[in-house]
Amino acid sequence: MAKELKNIEIPNITKDTLPATTRSAVLNKVFDIELKDTPLKAMKPTDVLVKIVAVGLCGSDVHYYDTGHIGDFVVKKPLILGHESSGVVVAVGDEVSKLKRGDRVAIEPGVPCGHCKNCRKGKYNLCPNMQFMATPPFDGDLSELIVYPQDFLFSLPDNISYEVATLNEPFSVGIHASEKLGINPGSTVLISGMGPVGLLAILAAKAFGATTIIVSDAEKLRLDTALKLGATDAINIKETSVLDSIMSLTDGEGVDFAIEASGNVGGEQTALAALSRGGSLAYIGVPTTDAVPLNVPFMTDHETTIYGIFRYANNYATGIKILAQNTELVETLLTDFYPLEETQAALEQTRTNKAGSLKVIVYPNEQLRK
Question: CA angle, 368 as apex, 93 and 223 as ends, to 5°?
Answer without folding.
Answer: 110
